[in-house]
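hi!! sorry for the late reply, been swamped w classes. u asked for the two structures so here they r. pasted raw, havent cleaned anything up. first the sequence of the first protein and right below it the tokens
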Amino acid sequence: MTNPYLAGAAGRCPQCGEGHLFEGFLKVSQTCEACGFDLSKADSGDGPAVFVIMIAGFLMAFGTLFSLFAFHWPVWLVLAFWMPMTVVTCLGLLRPMKGLLVAAQFVHKASQAGRHDV
């Protein structure tokens, strides 16, 4: 049996670990091409963005302050280095975080609350 969290982080179906989880960069597939699992109800919402902001924000803020105070970089160099690093880090973390949250929904059998559930 496959680990759903590892499969989700790798962009694979959390049920079988074989099919692609995403159609594009962040759009979740309707069904798994390998096992036919219905992925259309998986919705991570804003959760991945929140985790990415927290992780990348901490790393980039620490790196920025460290390079300013420890190495005495000029402000233009700090901006020229750390702003692109922030973009690359955020884009690099977004897809695995979304896959992890979709896998967590699968593991915990979570579903979206409808109008009749409230």
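now the second protein. again sequence first, tokens right under
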Amino acid sequence: MRRRRWIIAGAVIGTLGLSAVGVAVAAPAVAAVACPQCYGLSSLGDGVYAEAADGTSEDAYRRMIAAANQRVASFYGGRTSSPRVLICATTDCYHRIGGGAEKGRALRTWALMLSPAGADETIAAHELAHTELRQRLGDAIGQVPYWFNEGLAVLVSGDARYLRAEGEADRCRMPYDEAVRVAEQSRDQATERTYMQAACVVSRWAGARGGPAAVSTLIDDLRAGKSFPDVVRI
């Protein structure tokens, strides 16, 4: 079984063209995506795989992912990405498939993994938002700073921890002059507060420009060769 996992991982890694460092970090996750059953996950249909869990039905997982998919589709007016979804009911499972301390993780455009703490609609929608943005931008994804990517995922998912309810004139949960400092941070300085800052800035930017339509325009502009600082001024 172990040999089979690494054969699969090697094939997928070769296809994706991952670097040597990327291979070392990503191999368990890549192998798990290629063969979820090899890691104890069962197919629930439509590209969703889950570890059996006491108290959580397969139907509940299906409804959760369907609702998360709908949230992303509603924001973008449809979907272009269709990643596999791996859901773990135990921490051991999540670590086994390559997860860490995070609640969920998007693997480029091809998959997302959810930990026991992240198996809910909001976290699933957040990670699906990452895959959708990357799919729509293609190579232009490199133009987007991490904080904007995270802030947009919070906006799409409607995460109430970091944003006020939809419909409120100002969804920021902190003063904007504090939130905007997120643009000065590097990725390795990110904390939970970073998500609140990023969500505030992105929601204010999008809200002033027509909401989801502003994001669609941003994607078109970046794909056309414009630079992120020229398109997004905060």
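hope this helps!! also noticed smth abt the second:
Residues 58-76 form the longest helix (19 residues).
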